[in-house]
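User: ok so my PI wants both of these folded by tonight, can you help

Assistant: No problem, let's get them done. Here's the first:
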Amino acid sequence: MRILLASLNAKYVHTNLALRYLREEIKAEFPDVLLQEFTINQPLSHIAARIYEAKAEVIGFSCYIWNITQTLALIRQLRPVCPRVRFVLGGPEVSYEAETLLAEQPEVDVAVMGEGERTFPGLLRVWGSEENPGGGSEANAGSEEVGRNLGRAGLEQVAGIAWRKQGRVVVNPSRPLAKDLNLLPDPYATEESLTGRLVYVETSRGCPFACAYCLSSVTQGVRYLSPERFRGILRHVLKAGARTIKFVDRTFNARKKHAMRILDIVREEAALAGEPPDLRVHCEMAGELLDQEWVEYLSTYPAGLLQLEIGVQSTHEPTLELIRRVQNFRNWCGRVRRIQEARIPVHLDLIAGLPGEDWDRFGQSFNEVYALAPAMLQLGFLKLLKGSGLRQRSAELGLVYSPDPPYTVLRTASLSHDRLLWLERMEKLLNPYYNSGRFIYSLRQAEQERIFSSPFDFYLRMAEFWQAQGWFDRELHGKALFASLWQFIEFSLGRCAEGEAEDWRDALRFDFYLWERPGALPDFLQVPEGYYAPLGSGYQAREAEGRPRNPAGGVTRAGSGVRCDKEPCPRKRAGGVVPSKEEIFSDPGWLTEIPKMAGMDRRQWSRASALAYFTDDVWGRLSRVPERALSPEETGPVAGSGGIWYLFFYGEGKKTGVYRVT
C-alpha cells in the first residue's frame, strides 16, 4: 500500500514536523511511504498533478488555518480522478468540529483528531488488512464506492478518528495523549537535505498556562522529551544542513532545569559541528518565568546562537484577566533588557483585537513593548481558533470574526472594524521599517522628535500618509522605502526648522550607507550645499564613484565595526581638510583597524568602502536613546558640534564596519 504524506506550507523554507513524525512511525510497517511538501503560493493544478502522479492509495494532509482552504480545494480537484484513494486529514484545523467538516466535505474519508502518531498507523492497519485496498487511478472509477468502503468495518476500533458509516458521520472516542514522548520516533531519522530550510523541533508538548486564545488551553499538563533523546535528533538535523532551528515548544522555559539542559546540548553540539557561524536556534519563552538565574545563564550563552520570542500580547491587566493569561509585564521587562545587553535578540509579540483593550489602551501596550527595543516587534491579530476558549465565548465578549480561516477578528466591543483596519496598515509598515533592521537610526530619530507624541503615533501618522499616497496598493522595496520615508518626513517637518530636517537626513543617510552600499546617493539624501566641511581635492568625484551593491542578505545593523576615533588612525589635517581615500588607504594605521585591508589594491579598497560626510555625529547622538539597551559597539562618544566624516567598510558576509575619520 503506497502512502503519501503531504502538506501545503506557508513558505518554501518551512518544514512540516508532524508529517515527519508520521513517516518515521509507519515506515517499518508500511515502507512505501512518500513525503511531499508544497506551498500555499503554488498553483493548485501543479500540486494536484504532482500528487496524482505519485499513485498513492492513501493520502494524508496536514491541516492548519493557513492551508485548510487550499487543501480542501485540492482534494476536490483530485477526487474525480482518484476515486478509490482514501483522503485523510489531520492537524489542529480538523481536530475540532470534525463532524461538521466531514458532513460538509464528502470528498474526505477520515479526519484524525489530536495527536496522530498512534492513530494513523492504526487506521492504516485496518485498511492494509484488506486484500485490495484500492489503486488510485482512473481505471477503478467504476467501483470507487466499493474501494473507499473497504476496511470500514474495522474503523470502529480506531480511537481518535471521525469517519462515515452508511451515509452518516461517526466520531470515535478520543485517544489519550502519549504519556512518554521518548517513545515517539526521531522525526529526522530519514536522510534528507535541510539546507536553507527552517527546521522545527520539539522537546515538550503542552503548556503550563491556559490562555483562552490558544489551543494548548484545552489540554492539561506538560510532557517532556529526554534531553539526550533530543541530542540525537539535533545531530541528525545539523548533519542534514539545517542552520535555522525553531523549537515549537509552547513555553520553552516551563521547566527551567529541562530548558537549560536543552540549551546546553545546543551549545555542545554546535561546537562539535564546528560552530557554523550562521547557526541560530529560536525558542519561545514566557516572560513571567524569566528570573535572575535565567538572566545569568543567558548572559554567558554564545552570541548569535540563540534568539528568544516572548508573547506579551497585551500589557493591560483587565484584558489579561479576560484571556486568562498570567503575566505582569512590568515585573519582568527589566530582565529582558539585561538579556538584550547580553546580545541575545529578543522578539516580542502583541495581539490586536483582544477583548477589553480599546484603541488608546492598545496604543499604550504598543508603546511599552516598543520601548524595550525588541529585535522584532510582531504585531498579530486575534484568531478565534476552533476549540479555543475565546471562540466559545465570542458572543459573550462581543468578538466578531471571519467565518473562514484564519478566523481573524473583525470587530470587538472595544475596537471598531475601522480601527482594526488602521492597525493592519500600521503592521504593514512595521515589517519593512522596524523588523527589517534597515532603519535603526531613522526610527531612533523619530523617537526624539517632538512632533510625534509616541511610537504608536509615529506609525499611525505614517500609515495615514501612505494611505493618502496609495502606497499600500504597491510593493515598495529597497530605495523606494527610503524615498517614501523621506517624503513622510518632509510632510511631517514642513513647519519645523531646517536643522531638524538635517538631523532626519543624517539618520536616513546613515541607514542608507549601512544597507545599500550606494553607487550613487539619491538626491533627497545629498548633504545641502553649505554644510560640507573643507574638503581635500577631488572628493566630490570620489563621492560619486560607482560601488557594487551589498551582497545578498544585506548587512548587519550599525555599530558592527570598530570605531576609528583614536591613534594610529589618520587625523584631521590642519584647517579641517579631510584626507582623501587614497591617503586613508596608504596610512598603515588602518591595517590595525581593518585587518581585511591587507592584500587589497587601491581598486579593491575603493570598491569595498565609502567615505561620507554628516552634519552631526549621528552615530553618537542616536546611540543613546533613553530606555534602549545598546550593545557596547553601538555606543559612541557624545555627539559634538559641527560635521563629521564616516568611513563605511563593506566586508564579506553581512557586516559593515563603521569608522570615524577624526
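One down. Here's the second:
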Amino acid sequence: MPKVAAFVVSLLLVLAASPAAMAYTAVPGSYDVVGRADLYQGVEYLKLAKPAVPVVAHVAHVLPGALVDLRVVNASDKIPTSSKELETTSSMCRRVRCVVGVDGDFHFQGTPAGGVISAGRMMRSPNPAHPQVTITRDGHLVGGPLDWTGSLTLGDGNRVPLSGVNVSRVTNGLVLYTPAFGSRTPISGNVELVVSAAEGLGTLNRASGLDLKGIRSGAGAIPANGAVLSGDGAAAQQLLSLWGRVAGSTLSPHAEMLVQSPVDAAESIGVEPVVLRDGRRALPWLDPNVVNPRQPHTLVGWNKAGDVYLVAVDGRQSESQGMTMAEAADFLLGLGVSDAVSLDGGGGTVFVAGGSVWNRPSDNNPADPTQYEERGAANALVVVARPGAPLPALSPPPPPKVDPGAPAAPDGSQPTGAGGAPLGSTAGSPAPGGGTAGEAILQPAGLDGATHGGSSNLFMTARDGGSKGSVVTGQEIAAGGDQVRGAVLRAKGDGPRNAIATSIGSASVVAGTVAEAVANEVARVRHGDRLSTGLGLTMVGLVATLVRRRRRNGSFAGSGVT
C-alpha cells in the first residue's frame, strides 16, 4: 500500500474511535466563521457572517451520537393562554439547564399556534392541517402535520371520541382539559364532566385509567389530580347521558382515556412553514409575511445522517438584514441539511446557550434603545444532556471571535472552546512517544517519513495557493477530538471557504476499501473543487473529500467539511 494511502487509513482509524464531537459543521458558500465554541461534547456553535448583504446567523450543530436530547419546554411548564403567561427562552433554558435552545412555535396572544407534545404527553392537540416538527422516541425528526385520535372508553365498552386536548371549544365536540391548561377551563356554556386520575392523562399511545366524579354546567376548576371533559352540543348530551347512568349505578364510574398517533412522538411543536423536504424546497410556502421579507428567522434542520441544526438568523438591524425564506433554504442546504422547518421568527428569534442570549434579537429595549429586548415565547426547543451525562455549563463564556483573514497565532490559540480552553494549542507539548511534537510535513508528492517523539506529523494548507498553513502534530492526531479541530482551524486559508476540515462520527473503516477509495479520489478531484487540486491536494484535504463523498453514499455516520 502506498505511504499516502497507508497514512490515510491510520488517520481514519484513529478518528473513527473518537466521540461524535469529531464531526464539523459545513459552512455555506460566501459565509465567514466569525465565532465558534464547543458548547458540549457533540454540540458545536458557529457564528456565521455574510458581509455583502449583510447577514449574521447563529448555528448549533448537534452531532450524531451526542449524549443529548431535543426537548420542548413550555412557558411556566403549561400551555399559555395569554401574553401575560409567556416566558423568555433564556429563562426556560436556564430552568432546565439546557445546552442550547431557540424560541419555539408562533403564538396568538400567547396561545401556541400548533400542538404541543412534551416528554411523550400531549399537552395541546395539533391541528392535522398545521405542520409540526416532531421528535420520535428513537430520536428521529419529522416535519409535517401530525395525525392523532383520542377517545374515552366507558365501562361497558362504548367509546366517546375526543375532539381536542387543551384547545378552544370545538362545536359538537369533546375537549379534554388537563392541569397543563391551567387551573380553570375556558368560559363557556358547555357541560363539563370532572374526572380523577392516578397519573396525568394524555400520554401518547398508552391508555390511562380515570374515574368519573361529577358533572357541571359552565367553566370551573381543573383538579390537580385529574382533568375535565368539556362537551359542546351533541357531545354535551353524551356527557349528560353517561353521567345519568353512572348516578343510576348502571354504568361503572371507571373509564379509560387513550390519545394515540401513528407517529411515536416524544416531543412536538407547531411550525410554519416546512422549509425543506428531502433536500428540496417544500413548496408551496403559504404565508407571504413569513416567506418574502428579509427578516429574522428561527430554523430547525436535520439530515439522514443524524445531524441536527438549531439556527437563529438575526435581522431588521444594520449588522444583519435577515433572510428571505428562499435564502434561508439555501443557507440550510449549505450546512448539509436535507429537511427543515421554520419556528417563530421576527422579533421572537432568539438563540440561547446555557441561559445566555448569544444572538441580537431585533426588538429594542424601550428604556435603552442601544440594547435589545427578549420577547416572551409560548415554548422553546432546547438541547439537554441525557440523564446520567455530565451537566452542561450553566453560563458558558461568550463565543470567541474568529477573524477569517487574520494569521494564526504561533501557538495556535485561536480559537478557544467552551470554558476558554485553547483548541489545538499543543506546540511544544510532549508527544505520546516522549520528546516534543515537531513539524514533519506532508509534501505534495507524499508523506514525509520523519517522526518526532514517536509520532508522525501532518502539514495542512489551504486550497488555491492560500498562504496560510498549520502543523497537525502526532500528539494531536493521537488525541483526536478538539486537538485536531484546533489544528484544522489554524489552517484557515485566504478566503471564507478555504479552511480544510475532516471528521468521522462512529464510522466503521475497512482498510483495503479506504485505500482503494483514496486512490480513486486522487484521480477524480477536479481543479476548482472546494478543497485542493492535483498534487497540491493535502492529506487532510484528501480525507475530507473522501469522507464527504462516502457520507453521500451512507458509509459514514457523521462527517462534515468546512
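Residues 3-16 form the longest helix (14 residues). Confidence is low (pLDDT under 50) at residues 4-23, 407-562. Good luck tonight!
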